[in-house]
Amino acid sequence: MKEIHHWIDGKEVKGTSGRFSDVFNPATGEVQARLSLATRAELDAAVDSAAKAQVAWGSTNPQRRARVMMKFVDLLNRDMDKLAEALSSEHGKTFPDAKGDVQRGLEVIEFCIGAPHLLKGEYTDSAGTGIDMYSMRQPLGVVAGITPFNFPAMIPLWKMGPALAAGNAMILKPSERDPSVPLMLARLLQEAGLPDGVLQVVNGDKESVDAILDNPVIQAVGFVGSTPIAQYIYERAAATGKRAQCFGGAKNHMIIMPDADLDQAADALVGAGYGAAGERCMAISVAVPVGEKTADALIEKLVPRIEKLKVGPWTAGDDVDYGPVVTRAAKENIHRLVQSGIDQGAELVVDGRDFSLQGYEDGFFVGPHLFDRVTPDMDIYKTEIFGPVLSTVRAGSYEEAIGLAMHHEYGNGTAIFTRDGDAARDFANRINIGMVGINVPIPVPLAYHTFGGWKKSGFGDLNQHGPDAFRFYTRTKTVTARWPSGIKEGGEFNFKAMD
């Protein structure tokens, strides 16, 4: 059985805990590897080593750090297929979707090549007589990233790129469900010229997470995962004086106005609702058609599209629409929530409960589901299902539709499909959600803007990637400098305002 270990000081290091986690092939249900789980002592030792390596890295000029990012981009493009294959084999994503996972992370690394500009401070000449003032952005030191299973390339790249380009050392604790790609990324960074010890990949479970939160050397923690864990990490990090940026769950609504192009809307819903088996924090899981006529027409267009979806393993070709979910427990939880929707009175229009794939009966495949006439009191509406389940909530008016999204506890992403510019503008202005699409179903910003949700989808005041990432991974130091000339007049004992 293959064993997967840690990446410490530029080399693979075997774990010493004797504890392992199984890494599955989601398509077959078979265990394909065992992953070492770190002890608190192992985590602390990795932090101590990273702190020593960070001193020289933080002193390296930003342009030289950016050149490492530049070379890293070349290597990511070179090994794109290898990374995607490893990702698909452990996560279950289709091969094109896995390449997209790597690509959206790579784009953030491209943005990080601009670190010399992003790290520039401010300068005021002659703030007072003979006095100049300037600010500097300096690295925090050692920071940590705790990343999820559903984007095992993209989210680690979102975390490590800005953190390293800003001069920090990083402790990366990836998901134990699909750990191979983060280790491959660490090797590529070494090849790109990153000094040993500046990036440490420590595999683990809650023990490692708590060790990160308790370690006094770690200055900041970035997390993506479920809302309960995001809130736990945010609160515990704050209690120990760490900067924290924690992103949680989602329940993303797409409002379909009566004037929308319903073929376009239906295509968008199918892609956004069922892509990656619904295991995306930006997946559309709630369709909100406005008016009964719109709702009836939308359901009529959705059903044949959903029934044609091809579900299968990534090895079955690029025409597979989505693959298995990540674990058997995830599959069972999806089926439990689907049953709750039926029990609570929703209409199951497309029933995927009996889906089975010949030759892959033990895999974690879930058929597509479509609910109609869902109401806000139902569990399938309130809960993030994280599976191929689309719920339709009918709204009588635009105000009712926007109210549904605004009153839900999650606020990650949302979208409106309409030809009415006034409605779209009003929606974008009023909605209390972090990322908004107008005729765009999954409004994930490009790398030079920032990604982040509101309400219980995000904890912390700075977002991922874009300029916010460099603000998060640096602290500002402001210097007031005076170079006296002439005869010294002695000390001043009052707090004197600038002349």
Automatic annotation (TrEMBL):
<dbReference type="GO" id="GO:0006210">
    <property type="term" value="P:thymine catabolic process"/>
</dbReference>
<dbReference type="InterPro" id="IPR016163">
    <property type="entry name" value="Ald_DH_C"/>
</dbReference>
<dbReference type="InterPro" id="IPR016161">
    <property type="entry name" value="Ald_DH/histidinol_DH"/>
</dbReference>
<dbReference type="Pfam" id="PF00171">
    <property type="entry name" value="Aldedh"/>
</dbReference>
<feature type="domain" description="Aldehyde dehydrogenase">
    <location>
        <begin position="16"/>
        <end position="479"/>
    </location>
</feature>
<dbReference type="GO" id="GO:0006574">
    <property type="term" value="P:L-valine catabolic process"/>
</dbReference>
<dbReference type="GO" id="GO:0004491">
    <property type="term" value="F:methylmalonate-semialdehyde dehydrogenase (acylating, NAD) activity"/>
</dbReference>
<dbReference type="InterPro" id="IPR010061">
    <property type="entry name" value="MeMal-semiAld_DH"/>
</dbReference>
<protein>
    <recommendedName>
        <fullName>methylmalonate-semialdehyde dehydrogenase (CoA acylating)</fullName>
        <ecNumber>1.2.1.27</ecNumber>
    </recommendedName>
</protein>
<dbReference type="InterPro" id="IPR016162">
    <property type="entry name" value="Ald_DH_N"/>
</dbReference>
<dbReference type="InterPro" id="IPR015590">
    <property type="entry name" value="Aldehyde_DH_dom"/>
</dbReference>
<keyword id="KW-0560">Oxidoreductase</keyword>
<keyword id="KW-0520">NAD</keyword>
<dbReference type="InterPro" id="IPR016160">
    <property type="entry name" value="Ald_DH_CS_CYS"/>
</dbReference>
